[in-house]
């Protein structure tokens, strides 16, 4: 086993164990063990487990991203301060001040990539498991935690006539079902990824963040990443395409919830939330402005107490004693 295979071995075992757990559970409740939809739901179950485990990481990512967006005006000032200075001491001083700024606000420019980086070993592990199904079947072996019998069962499973272990570029081009389903899944995978990123840029970024150099890089990635995954998708087995499309749909729903309920201050989504709350007669949230609003918080506490049946006597802070 090579070095990469040694590193990936634990992930292959974990991925296959989770899939087998869902497969056995679905079989227990009456779904056919050798049916392609049973294995498809097992792959979807794998996504749910991984993404649920990554929720704390996602929360940190959102906080770090929000910090980066709020930092853009200060970063612009720092860049203007050292504009035109190309000597080594100036570059080092700028880098140190920039890192100190990131540390102070608890953020960094790589925070947006963290959930994807954590997911990649599981993605590659699933790719290796599904790609190795045919070879393991021929050699009479299992793969990961899957026994040889389960390998044979998975290899024979299909949906809409397309085997889950088949890939468009590797022998699947002769199967019309594989070609059609692969193209549909690749389009769904790339479209969901594009919409998710576009949603953030259009609704959850302030004007300062949109005008920053960092944002120009993000706009380039908005179009480059879907193309990369779209082209790479012709190498992915159907099961891997199902996995990646499902995780993109999870991300899309997660982003929609965050943008609607916890938008970045100064963004179009924050203004929309403020308008919705004003229309309902609710107090403004401090998160919409990025500043603490004591009067709004006091009114909210009073409303909560009154809803519980408690009468709250309003008091003035500067009330004089008689």
Question: What are the salient characteristics of this protein?
Answer:
single chain, 322 residues, mainly alpha, two-stranded antiparallel ribbon, 2 strands, elongated
Summary, kept brief:
This protein is mainly α. It is built from 13 helices and two strands.
Question: How many individual domains?
Answer: 1
* DSSP helix fraction: 55-70%
Low-confidence stretches are 289-312
The rounded distance between the terminal residues' Cα atoms is: 85 Å
Mean pLDDT comes to: 78
Radius of gyration: 26 Å
Main pleated sheet = 2 strands, antiparallel
Count up the helices.
Answer: 13
Beta-strand fraction estimate: under 5%
SS-based structural class?
Answer: mainly alpha
Principal-axis shape:
elongated
Output the helix-strand order.
HHHHHHHEEHHHHHH
The total count of strands amounts to 2
Side by side, the strands of the main sheet go 1-2
Description:
- With 322 residues, this protein is mostly helical.
- The chain has one domain (3-268).
- The chain has 13 helices and two strands.
- Strands 1-2 form a two-stranded antiparallel sheet.
- Helix 3 packs antiparallel against helix 4 and helix 8 (176-203) runs antiparallel to helix 10.
- The longest helix has 28 residues, at 176-203.
- The radius of gyration is 26 Å and the shape is elongated.
- The protein starts with a helix and ends in a 15-residue tail after the last helix.
- The model is unreliable at 289-312 (pLDDT under 50).
């Amino acid at each position: 086993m090579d070095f990469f295979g040694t590193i990936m071995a634990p992930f292959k075992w974990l991925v296959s164990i989770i899939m087998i757990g869902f497969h056995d559970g679905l079989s227990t409740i009456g779904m056919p063990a050798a049916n392609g939809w049973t294995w498809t739901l097992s792959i979807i179950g794998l996504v749910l487990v991984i993404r649920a485990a990554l929720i704390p990481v996602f929360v940190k990512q959102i906080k770090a991203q929000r910090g980066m967006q709020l930092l853009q005006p200060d970063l612009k000032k720092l860049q203007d301060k050292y504009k035109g200075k190309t000597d080594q001491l100036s570059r080092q001083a700028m880098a140190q001040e920039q890192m100190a700024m990131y540390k102070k606000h608890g953020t960094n420019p790589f925070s947006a990539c963290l959930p994807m980086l954590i997911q990649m070993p599981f993605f590659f592990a699933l790719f290796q498991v599904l790609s190795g199904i045919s070879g393991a079947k021929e050699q009479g072996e299992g793969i990961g935690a899957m026994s040889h019998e389960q390998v044979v069962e998975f290899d024979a499973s299909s949906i809409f006539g397309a085997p889950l272990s088949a890939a468009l570029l590797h022998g699947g081009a002769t199967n019309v079902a594989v070609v059609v389903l692969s193209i549909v899944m690749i389009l769904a995978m790339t479209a969901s990824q594009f919409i998710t990123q576009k949603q953030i840029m259009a609704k959850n970024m302030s004007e300062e963040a949109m005008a920053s150099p960092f944002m120009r890089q993000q706009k380039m990635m908005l179009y480059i990443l879907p193309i990369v995954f779209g082209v790479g998708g012709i190498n992915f087995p159907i099961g891997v395409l199902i996995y990646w499309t499902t995780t993109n749909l999870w991300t899309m729903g997660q982003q929609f919830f965050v943008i609607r309920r916890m938008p970045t201050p100064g963004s179009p989504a924050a203004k929309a939330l403020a308008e919705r709350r004003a229309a309902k007669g609710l107090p403004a949230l401090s998160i919409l402005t990025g500043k603490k609003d004591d009067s709004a918080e006091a009114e909210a506490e009073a409303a909560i107490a009154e809803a519980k049946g408690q009468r709250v006597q309003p008091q003035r802070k500067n009330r004089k004693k008689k």
